[in-house]
């Protein structure tokens, strides 16, 4: 995050986070205007878009044959540029769409997962240029999220951030506006959901409907002391609808395995970090962001494994796009090192 790159970001009018689970758009002087699932429903006969965002998500698993529910972003990468553009156009309000058409030379900032492949960078850039952006600035999600959490990233002291999203979890130690050490593991909310689905299948012989996982997650989040939650699904053998009581304890055990991948990544980042910075971290602790940050017990698990305090960001799911927003509103100032100061 050099003064030069901050200057470039200040010229952007729109910030976009194309996440595997959710798409978020921030517009300068307006704020967050889109926070919707990265999903579209398409009529395969006519090719027309039927719904996007939450409405399309509600259709998943319930559509007739000629309607297909698609995800144009997979694993944090735009895999279907045309569909991603159509989805974004649909998600932004008429007013913004008209403004973009009137002012087709706008600049956009997009956050990308740490170490994104050149192909992923190009796909994100093309998605935005197709919508009228003249120039697209790419920002590492870890830096954007750290800014969005209010961490003093530009200061010469170490801060550690863990961004637990849907497709991946990214970990970094930052100092002086740059990444000192970072890791990305393909473990996020999706892997956790998969572990829960497998648990229900093997222990209860139950197949969960597409929409069934979120209520189960919410039940566990609402009261971590709750012994269990009732889940309705389809019996694997008979195909009939059945309700079972799922124990919170057993679900926690099932998700423990994918979560150890996150702990390993944190361990590797700490090992790669210079000792002086590790000492800073011991005092400051770890900031936990991303939609999966609120997964019950994740903060305690990280605290137990590292011996550091863990704080969940105030709005963990929107940290990255809000951080980008803060940068394009000019609320982040680079540290001015005065070489003549005594
Ligand atoms: N209350 C909750 N409890 C547990 N998990 C949750 C909760 N709310 C959201 N999640 C999980 O958070 C994930 C979405 O996180 P986020 O919004 O950061 O995703 P994203 O930015 O689209 O993903 P990525 O960064 O991987 O591209 C989903 O997998 C979802 O299951």
TrEMBL record:
The family this protein is said to belong to: Belongs to the FtsA/MreB family.
Pfam family, any one: MreB_Mbl
Binding sites annotated in the UniProt record for ATP: 166-168
Highest taxon of source: Bacteria
PANTHER family, per the entry: CELL SHAPE-DETERMINING PROTEIN MREB
Role: Forms membrane-associated dynamic filaments that are essential for cell shape determination. Acts by regulating cell wall synthesis and cell elongation, and thus cell shape. A feedback loop between cell geometry and MreB localization may maintain elongated cell shape by targeting cell wall growth to regions of negative cell wall curvature.
Subcellular compartments: Cytoplasm
Main subcellular localisation: cytoplasm
InterPro entries according to UniProt: ATPase_NBD, MreB, MreB_MamK-like
Keyword S-adenosyl-L-methionine: no
Lineage: Bacteria, Bacillati, Actinomycetota, Actinomycetes, Kitasatosporales
HAMAP family: MreB
Name of this protein: Cell shape-determining protein MreB
Keywords carried by this UniProt record: ATP-binding, Cell shape, Cytoplasm, Nucleotide-binding
């Amino acid at each position: 995050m050099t003064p030069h790159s901050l200057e470039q970001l200040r010229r952007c009018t729109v910030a976009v986070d194309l996440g595997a689970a959710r798409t978020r758009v921030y517009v300068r002087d307006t704020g967050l205007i889109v926070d919707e699932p990265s999903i579209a429903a398409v009529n395969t006969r006519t090719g027309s878009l039927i719904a996007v965002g939450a409405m399309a998500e509600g259709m998943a698993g319930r559509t007739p044959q000629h309607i297909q529910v698609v995800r144009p972003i997979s694993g944090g990468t735009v895999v279907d540029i045309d569909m991603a553009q159509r989805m974004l156009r649909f998600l932004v309000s008429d007013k913004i769409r008209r403004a973009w058409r009137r002012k087709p030379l706008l600049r956009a900032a997009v956050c990308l997962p740490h170490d994104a492949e050149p192909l992923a960078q190009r796909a994100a850039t093309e998605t935005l240029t197709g919508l009228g952006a003249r120039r697209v600035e790419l920002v590492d999600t870890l830096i954007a999220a750290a800014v969005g959490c209010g961490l003093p990233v530009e200061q010469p002291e170490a801060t550690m951030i863990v961004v637990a999203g849907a497709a991946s979890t990214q970990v970094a130690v930052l100092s002086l506006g740059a990444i000192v050490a970072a890791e990305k593991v393909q473990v996020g909310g999706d892997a956790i959901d998969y572990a829960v689905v497998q648990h229900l299948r093997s222990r209860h012989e139950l197949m969960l409907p597409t929409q069934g996982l979120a209520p189960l997650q919410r039940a566990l989040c609402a009261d971590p002391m709750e012994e269990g939650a009732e889940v309705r699904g389809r019996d694997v053998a008979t195909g009939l609808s059945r309700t079972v009581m799922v124990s919170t304890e057993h679900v926690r055990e099932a998700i423990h395995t994918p979560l150890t991948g996150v702990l390993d990544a944190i361990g590797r980042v700490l090992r790669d970090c210079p000792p002086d910075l590790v000492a800073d971290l011991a005092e400051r602790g770890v900031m936990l962001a991303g939609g999966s940050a609120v997964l019950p017990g994740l903060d305690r698990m990280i605290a137990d494994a590292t011996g550091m305090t863990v704080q969940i960001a105030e709005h963990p799911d929107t940290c990255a796009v809000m951080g980008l927003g803060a940068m394009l509103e000019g609320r982040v100032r680079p540290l001015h090192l005065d070489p003549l100061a005594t």
